[in-house]
């Protein structure tokens, strides 16, 4: 006679995904927003998981949420189970489906990587979108609404990095955009020391680009440069030109940025600050288009020395 031993716990991966969101955020409201759930539904799922495991996973007070020892013990298992679940889903996914790639801004290194990838994999459909900010893209990547993005991976909050993988593509030299008649516009290059006392815009107030703003904040603090206060992001060349003419503030960017009318772009020096640009995707994603993007990035880096630092200093 065949005896089948009962399985102690047949845990729904969806409940583990809810658990990880709360564990990463340590805040039920933020976790619910991240998963696009009502907070009541999220709380119900957490209680259901606790009942199934026979363990309390979170300590909840009116002021804070914290993992219990059992919650800490579950955390690495939950990550491994969900990673395996993603790999299983990817293994049977349609390799011919379009791959959605966020390039952030037109005319940058990311666009060159995409163009090369399309040459390497002409049978794959690699669709581009342009929505600035890796912080904003991270939730879409984790949820499968977006496949690939580019940005400062190290600048993401740990909770946003957790479900993602990355490949360093390029150390991008930084620059500033200046009004054409700004006192520093006459220079071919602008030493960081020359910006001391200036108020430089670096995306403050834009929740999609916090990784860029925080990296800039650390760079500016080391050189006596003020971070310009929060302001709405100017979208489009004409709006950028208008805001630049009104505020007259330098704007931090990379050397490939296309300057707009009535502005000039000047590389930064002494030392040359470098932004570590990464190709970023959801861990477990399998797709020929991703393979092509990774090969394209590695090839361009070799051919053009994108990973050579020289005298430059990467952002922290």
From TrEMBL:
Q: Specify the domain of life of the species encoding this protein.
A: Bacteria
Specify whether DNA-binding is a keyword of the entry. Answer: yes
Give me the Gene Ontology terms describing cellular component: protein-DNA complex
One Pfam family this sequence matches:
HTH_1
Q: Which GO terms describe its molecular function?
A: DNA binding; DNA-binding transcription factor activity
Q: List keywords of the entry alphabetically.
A: DNA-binding, Transcription, Transcription regulation
What protein family is recorded?
Answer: Belongs to the LysR transcriptional regulatory family.
Q: What is this protein called?
A: LysR-family transcriptional regulator
Q: Supply the source organism for this entry.
A: Streptomyces clavuligerus
């Amino acid at each position: 006679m065949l005896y089948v031993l009962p399985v102690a716990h047949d845990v729904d991966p969806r409940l583990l995904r809810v658990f990880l969101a709360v564990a990463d955020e340590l805040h039920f409201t933020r976790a619910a927003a991240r998963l696009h759930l009502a907070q009541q539904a999220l709380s119900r799922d957490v209680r259901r998981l606790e009942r199934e495991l026979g363990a309390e996973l979170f300590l909840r007070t009116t002021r804070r949420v914290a993992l219990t020892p059992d919650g800490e013990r579950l955390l690495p298992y939950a990550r491994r189970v969900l990673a395996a679940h993603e790999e299983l889903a990817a293994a049977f996914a349609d390799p011919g489906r379009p791959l959605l790639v966020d390039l952030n801004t037109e005319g940058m290194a990311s666009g060159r990587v995409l163009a090369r990838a399309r040459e390497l994999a002409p049978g794959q459909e690699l669709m581009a979108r342009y929505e600035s900010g890796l912080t904003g893209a991270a939730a879409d990547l984790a949820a499968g609404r977006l496949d690939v993005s580019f940005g400062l991976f190290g600048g993401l909050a740990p909770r946003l990095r957790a479900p993602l993988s990355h490949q360093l593509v390029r150390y991008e030299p930084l620059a500033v955009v200046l009004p054409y008649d700004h006192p520093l516009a006459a220079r071919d290059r602008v030493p960081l020391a020359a910006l001391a006392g200036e108020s430089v815009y670096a995306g403050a107030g834009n929740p999609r680009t916090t990784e860029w703003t925080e990296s800039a904040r650390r760079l500016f603090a080391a050189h006596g440069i003020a971070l310009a206060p929060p302001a709405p992001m100017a979208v489009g060349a004409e709006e950028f030109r208008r805001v630049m003419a009104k505020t007259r503030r330098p704007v931090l960017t990379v050397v490939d940025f296309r300057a707009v009318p009535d502005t000039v772009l000047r590389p930064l020096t002494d030392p040359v600050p470098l932004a570590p640009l990464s190709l970023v995707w959801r861990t477990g994603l399998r797709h020929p288009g991703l393979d092509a993007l990774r090969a394209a990035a590695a090839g361009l880096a070799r051919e053009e020395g994108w990973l050579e630092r020289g005298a430059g200093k990467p952002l922290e």
